[in-house]
Amino acid sequence: MPNGDLENRGSMKNRGPPQNPNGYHSTYYVESSETYWTSWLVPMIVVANIAVFIVVMYINNCPSNSTTTEYYGPCVAKFLGRFSFEPTKENPLLGPSSSTLLKLGALEWDKIVHQHQGWRLLTCMWLHAGVIHLLANMLSLVFIGIRLEQQFGFIRVGVIYFVSGLGGSILSSLFIQSSNNISVGASGALFGLLGAMLSELLTNWTIYSNKAAALLTLVVVIVINLALGILPHVDNFAHIGGFLTGFFLGFVLLVRPQFGWVERQHLPSGARGKSKYKVYQYVLWVVSVVLLIVGFTVGLVMLFKGESGNKHCSWCHYLSCVPTSKWKCGE
């Protein structure tokens, strides 16, 4: 966004989507009692996000805002009437204005802390900065989420998605506290699903074939997506917060019994079967639960006390934007 946008409406920190990690889940051994779920939650989330975006564009009503058109130029796709997009100088992603997003629930530190609008930590994940932002996030959700929901069910995947979105919002609020910045998008939740895929692979390591290739592929995808977050106007703190939340939730919710345990009923009488989980799975479960409780407690206390994460970590701002000769992170 140009400087005029920052001064008048605030810049939008877009939560860019993670890329499809090519479905590494096909590499594990399927036991006879494996249950596959019908995916309905992820498609419903996609439909809900599209519906919310349509409502946002209806409320935005670009043609009625003479101030915007005078300052930035004509609305884009004016044939859409009140659904037309803001001028590209205002919003290059083909979407509403920052002021509309802020009014409808975008993440903004001052309103959360000083105006007690904590609900923005959840509503921001249903808003998108534009058509490009929406399509990128929803395509990523379809590629990542449907496969996970088919294997683990809507309850576990739903918990990971929404709790990861909350975790991303909390970390974003702790580090992005300028009154000129708002944050919207579902990619904190999407990165949570990506983190859960990684921890699921690690905690269920013994039931996978081609595990090294699967791990390498997934790690490369994660590194590339997080690296893209250092570009300006991308809220990488939401990505990191969502990823860490999903990573630890994966150890808690996506653990599988070790190979052969579900077939124990076919063993001869008196034969000693395997335990359901390995020791390291129990250890990872306990450690992850503790870290999640501590992380959310500390994060929420710091947030509502008005603490800034940058005061406790002077270099952390580089995780979201690295200045170069081409751009400045304060713009």
UniProtKB/TrEMBL annotation:
Domain Peptidase S54 rhomboid: 116-254
The keyword rRNA-binding is annotated on this UniProt entry: no
SUPFAM superfamilies: Rhomboid-like
UniProt membrane topology term: Multi-pass membrane protein
Catalysed reaction, written as an equation: Cleaves type-1 transmembrane domains using a catalytic dyad composed of serine and histidine that are contributed by different transmembrane domains
GO cellular component, one term: membrane
Primary subcellular site in the record, as a coarse category: membrane
EC number assigned by the record: 3.4.21.105
Record keywords, A-Z: Hydrolase, Membrane, Protease, Serine protease, Transmembrane, Transmembrane helix
Transmembrane residue ranges: 40-59, 125-146, 158-176, 182-201, 213-231, 237-255, 282-304
Compartments reported by the entry: Membrane
Highest taxon of source: Eukaryota
Family from the record: Belongs to the peptidase S54 family.
Protein name: RHOMBOID-like protein
Biological source species: Dillenia turbinata
